[in-house]
Every structure is written in structure tokens, then in C-alpha cells.
Design brief:
The structure holds two protein chains of two kinds. Chain A is built from 13 helices and no strands. By secondary structure, chain A is mainly α. The mean pLDDT of chain A is about 85. Chain B is mostly helical. The longest helix of chain B is centred in the middle third of the chain and has 32 residues. The radius of gyration of chain B is 25 Å and the shape is flat. Classes of the chains: A mainly alpha, B mainly alpha.
């Protein structure tokens, strides 16, 4: 690493602020898109077109009373939202935003991403248990069972990506996808089944519809954060939206070429001066952002398209459909590697 | 190599700082007017019946146990996945693939057994 730590700290600080702002924009985007999908305007009072609504909501949450049940375990009750926020904010450090622009690049970044996302199960479980409320407990249990069930298939989908790239580094996985010429090297084309499994499991891991059973308000009130109010609830909310955004980043990076421009080799051949320039870096960051925006939109789109699964359906899909498919996919990709890369 | 993890620690520390700030904001910015109704556990308007710290369905333990077994086996696949192209380059690809196929077959049989025994039935 030739970048001094103080510079890294500034970049990391910038990334965290970027994630905070993105979460607000996502809240606005979700409410607005949901509104248009249901033929209503959505928020339109605070700021131009209602754009400042999420910021107003943050300030409202900040100045609300922080209520915790007397019977709750107060330390764990406070620890749970902190865990969720820390995990959600740390994962972006492993994502390369353009060629060479990444905070953590140590050769095992894929493993770190998987490890961190599995830690967020603890946040959910602690929130559910510590509140000492039945709704919270049930929501927490459901959520943790769901997250660990889909983590297996997610891990196996990542194994197939690692097989193709021969590396555990996110940067090398992205660069490996540049080999196919234009866009055919992207993992979604070499490994379509893995991409599908990963996208489905990403929905389940982030507890988004149609996998939002932990917060099925008709039966569980608020799920694991029933007993949270004020900014502590805001922290769960923030973590949920950042997780959603980060999941879009990881999908785009692992399967859709990350920061690679479509037809990048051809563009570089036509404009040789572009190689290594700042402009290329900006274009790559913009490309990544466009891909991520698409997946962020996909999350909203799916939410208003598919009804919520029942609990037994959820478990059946996770264990009896996705897991065997993911196992077969790993062997399939290994065969592809033998046949086409040997 | 340990130096490669310093940026990660940096990011964790900054994220922890953010979490702490938000927790302190939750603690000190809002009003604090407690009353017994507010401090009770929420049970849709009724007085809470008993505690939530009761026994709950053994199904959740079963899922957790099966998860640990399968997750460990998935972890075993990672070293193979990273080095598979090197094995291939060394001309041992087919043999390694056969071994891993047997491993995944055993995994699959275990999953099939679990499904047939009803370990993953939920209602």
C-alpha cells in the first residue's frame, strides 16, 4: 500500500458520508417510485419535489424520545442497532469504485464481505432477544433463520465466481471479467445461474420484499425492531437501506462487471490516451453507479410486483430449490473452467 | 500482510464512530419523559402476559444446526475454488474435479436425507 493512512481515512470518511446520503436518496427514491407504481404522487411537500423529505425524517427521528421497555436488557438493546450500522457501513470499503480506487484490497476481500454480512445476523438476533417482547423475539428468530438459510446458497454462488476468477480478491474478480472482450466476460453471461441465485439470496439477506417476513406487519407488528424508537429505530432503518444499496453494489461488482465500461477494450483501442486517465476513472465510477442504480430500482420494482412468501415457502425455496441448484452450479462452473480455460 | 488489514480496521473504527454518534444522539437529543405505559413491552395494547424469554420452537435450533454443518462444508469448497485453475494448469484438473464431485455428492446425499427425514418441514 503506497497510500498514506491519513488519506485512506479521508477516503473512508467520504465513503461513509456517501453511503449516508445515498441512503436518504434511496428512501426518497423508494417512496417516490412506490408512489408512481401505485398511481399516487408520493412525498412532494418538503423541498423541490419532496426531495428533502428523508432529511426532515432523520431530524424528526433524532429529536424523538428514545423509549426502551423496562424489562429489556439495555446494553444489548443499544448494541444491536450499532452492530447493524457498523456492518452496513464497513462492507463498502471492499468495493472498487474505479480501477485502483478501493479502500481495502488484501486478497481475501470476498471472504471479508461474506463474513461481515453474516455478522449482521447477530444484530437482528440481539435486537429480537434483548427487547423482551414477543413480537420482537419472533421477528428476530424468523429473520435469523431466514438469513442463515439463504447464506448457504449465497456462499455457493460466490464459490462459482471464485472458481472463474481463481482469486478471493474483489478487484481481481472484476478484472477477470474484462477478459471476454466487450461484455461477454461479465460473470452474468459466464455464470447466469450463479447470478440468479446470488440476486435472490441478496433479496433474502437484506430482508427485502418478497422476503420481508421478519417485518410482516400484518402478523408481527414491526418484527425485530418493534421495541425501538427514535434514532435507534433510525439506525435499523439506515442499516436496512445501506444494506440494500451495498447489496446492489456487490451484485454489480461480482456479476455485472463492476466498474468495467461496456465495450471497454474497444473504447480504449479507439482512444488510447484514455488509458489510465482520470476521465476513465470517472467514467468507470459512473458506470458502476448506473449499474447499482438499476439494481436499486430492481429492489423497489420487485417489492411492488411479488407478494410476500409464506414462512414454509421461504424455507422450501431456500433449502430445497436454491441450495441443490447452487451445488449443481458449482460443479457446472468447474466443468466450464475445465473445458474452456484448461 | 497484517498491514493490509489496517484500512479495514480504519473503516470499522469510522463506522463504529458513526454508530456511537447516533446512539449518543438517540440518548441526549430527544426528550425523556418516561411513564409505566411507555416502558412496558408492546403487546398490541394489552398488558404483557408473562415474559418473552420463554422456550421457543425447536425447529429454529434444527435449522441452525443444519446450517452450521453445511456452512462448514461450503467453507471447504473455497480453497479448492481458489486453486482449481492452478491444478488445471498443472494437469491435475480432472482428478481434483472428481474428488470434489464426490465431496459435493456426499453433501447432496446429506441434504436429501435431511429433506426425506422431514428436518426441513415448516408449517
Amino acid at each position: 500500500m503506497d497510500v498514506p493512512y491519513w488519506l485512506l481515512a479521508i477516503i473512508a470518511f467520504g465513503v461513509i458520508n456517501f453511503m449516508l446520503i445515498s441512503a436518504s436518496v434511496l428512501v426518497y427514491a423508494e417512496r417516490k417510485v412506490s408512489g408512481y407504481m401505485q398511481n399516487r404522487p408520493g412525498p412532494n411537500r418538503v423541498g423541490p419535489g419532496g426531495f428533502l423529505q428523508p432529511f426532515a425524517d432523520v431530524f424528526k427521528l433524532m429529536f424523538k424520545e428514545d423509549i426502551a421497555p423496562r424489562s429489556a436488557s439495555s446494553f444489548v438493546h443499544s448494541l444491536a442497532p450499532a452492530v447493524m450500522v457498523v456492518i452496513a457501513m464497513t462492507v463498502p470499503a471492499m468495493i472498487p469504485f474505479a480501477r485502483g480506487v478501493v479502500i481495502v484490497d488484501n486478497g481475501v476481500t470476498v471472504l471479508i464481505i461474506l463474513a461481515l454480512t453474516s455478522v449482521s445476523v447477530y444484530g437482528v438476533t440481539m435486537a429480537g432477544w434483548s427487547s423482551n417482547s414477543k413480537f420482537s423475539l419472533l421477528g428476530g428468530l424468523r429473520s435469523s433463520a431466514q438469513m442463515i438459510s439463504y447464506e448457504l446458497s449465497m456462499g455457493l454462488a460466490v464459490v462459482s465466481v471464485v472458481l472463474l476468477a481463481g482469486s478471493l480478491s474483489v478487484v481481481e474478480i472484476v478484472e477477470d471479467q474484462a477478459r471476454g472482450g466487450a461484455i461477454l466476460g461479465w460473470n452474468v453471461f459466464r455464470n447466469p445461474l450463479g447470478a440468479l441465485i446470488f440476486v435472490i439470496t441478496a433479496f433474502a439477506e437484506t430482508n427485502r420484499a418478497p422476503f420481508d417476513l421478519p417485518e410482516a406487519e400484518q402478523e408481527l407488528v414491526g418484527g425485530y425492531h418493534t421495541e425501538y424508537s427514535g434514532m435507534k429505530f433510525g439506525m435499523f432503518f439506515l442499516a436496512e437501506y445501506v444494506n440494500w444499496f451495498v447489496a446492489s453494489f456487490v451484485i454489480a461488482t461480482l456479476f455485472f462487471g463492476g466498474y468495467l465500461l461496456p465495450f471497454e477494450p474497444q473504447i480504449l483501442a479507439a482512444y488510447p490516451g484514455l488509458d489510465g486517465s482520470v476521465l476513465l476513472g470517472l467514467l468507470q465510477a459512473l458506470t458502476l453507479l448506473l449499474k447499482v442504480s438499476f439494481f436499486a430500482f430492481l429492489f423497489i420494482w420487485v417489492r411492488w410486483t411479488l407478494p410476500r412468501f409464506k414462512y414454509n415457502q421461504l424455507m422450501t425455496i431456500g433449502w430445497k430449490v436454491l441450495l441443490p441448484t447452487a451445488l449443481v452450479n458449482v460443479l457446472l462452473i468447474a466443468l466450464v473452467v475445465v473445458l474452456f480455460m484448461g | 500482510m497484517p498491514a493490509d488489514f489496517v484500512p479495514l480496521l480504519l473503516m470499522l473504527a469510522l463506522a463504529a464512530g458513526l454508530a456511537l454518534t447516533l446512539l449518543l444522539a438517540a440518548r441526549y437529543l430527544g426528550p425523556r419523559r418516561a411513564n409505566p405505559i411507555k416502558e412496558g413491552a408492546y403487546e398490541s395494547g394489552m398488558d404483557p402476559i408473562g415474559t418473552a424469554r420463554q422456550r421457543y420452537s425447536v425447529k429454529f435450533y434444527l435449522v441452525a444446526m443444519i446450517f452450521i454443518i453445511f456452512d462448514v462444508e461450503v467453507v471447504f469448497l473455497y480453497p479448492w475454488a481458489v486453486s482449481f485453475q492452478e491444478f488445471l494448469a498443472a494437469g491435475e484438473g480432472i482428478g481434483v474435479l472428481a474428488v470434489v464431485s464426490i465431496f459435493i455428492l456426499v453433501l447432496g446425499v446429506g441434504l436429501l436425507y435431511d429433506i426425506r427425514k422431514g428436518g426441513l418441514e415448516f408449517d
